Amino acid sequence: MLYDNYSPALNGIALRVVGSPSLAADVLQQTFLKIWNNFDQYDENKASLFTWMARIARNSAIDARRLKSFEHNQKTDSFDTTVHTGETTHIATAGIDVDTLLEGMDIEHRKVLDLVYLQGYSHSQASEHLQIPLGTVKTRIRSSISTLREKVKQDKKLFFGLFLLLLMLVVLAL
Amino acid sequence: MTIDELRESGLLELYVIGDVSAAERQKVEQMVKDHPELMSEIQEIEAALGTFALAHAVLPDPSLKDTILKKISGSEKPKPPSNDKKSGNWGLGLLLASILALGALLWGWMNKSQITELENQLTILQRDCDSIVDAQGNRLAFFDGLFNESDVLALSATPKYPNTTLFLYSNNNTQTNYLQAINLPNITPQQVFQLWSLKGSGAPIPLSTFSGEGGIPQEIDFEGGTDVYAITIEPAGGSQAPNLDELIGTIPVG
Known about the structure:
The structure holds 2 protein chains of 2 kinds.
Chain A: H1 2-18, H2 21-37, H3 49-76, H4 98-101, H5 107-118, H6 123-130, H7 134-173
Helix pairs in contact in A: 1-2, 1-3, 2-3, 5-7, 6-7
Chain B: H1 3-9, H2 11-17, H3 22-34, H4 38-55, H5 63-73, H6 84-88, H7 90-107, H8 112-149, E1 151-154, E2 156-157, E3 165-171, E4 176-183, E5 191-198, E6 205-210, E7 218-220, E8 228-235, E9 247-252
Antiparallel strand pairs in B: 1-3, 2-9, 3-4, 4-7, 5-6, 5-8, 8-9
């Protein structure tokens, strides 16, 4: 059940960080083994289960990418150690449309959130990569998440409104 | 730092993402302890990022599920997911939702959104609880199998690392090793522990690396015909030849 509920989202994170489906599969495997082995360390007072698992997936993927980069460097000494673009084709599995969700979010802010949350950059790496101050990175992350929060709240209200409308129609029809 | 300063700093968002130093994490957790109202702020950030992650979800290869479950629980076949029953209870669910919604109508328009919010949170918590119970059941079955079917081998620590305590659960039939690290020397982030297989007078065979976190058994490479396993401290990524100056101990087999 844990796997069924969370593997697509965790795989999405791993894939965006490492860029290769086969390596992402290895990362997903490591992630679930770590979840299994460290379940007693999960503290529900500190984070939701998904947040805890997403951190494990993100860190495992970053480690795998570092190792891949390290091995590649040893062989060719020319591997680009910066993170890839992460422009991976995705298959949304939760009925959530990315464009709708991100509607209204400043493109520059979205870029920072994508780098830090989905591609495993630290905020200082993102600052270096985008050549913007560290404070600006933090501000953009906060702003993009605020936009998401509003969007999630609006969607909940819209869903509830539609549900009530439907219910009233049913009651009137009866 | 005040609550508002913390909110404005962007630290809460980075905390949820997991991109904070140990000191920053401690600071946030202390602030949440002192100001429990910050928890709802964190939960909203978690919900937003969870939705963002779901929007970028990618279905993994279907065969991966079996591979992972076999790794986790050995040969034991896990229980099938119990999500199916939800679709069968659709009518009942709709009826209950209708009753709840009617109640909400009577109770007052002003409180409707709060009820929806709570229902959503309840659904998420229920799903988390189900997942936790399921995982714990599988773990119990796993430990039963591990303790009853494996040879338990203790590490003999070297004088340099006398406090090291570690056990290897070795199963010749299933050709699997599980390692339980109770107490390990401190290493830097640029180092790992590495397992080696020694057979007769042959060169040591490099096996898995591990970081040693937690005391729960974790699967590690098995090498048939091993006389002695050894564990050394190596640079991150592991080595092809052991650094004998950093030998932490040996595990005789048989």
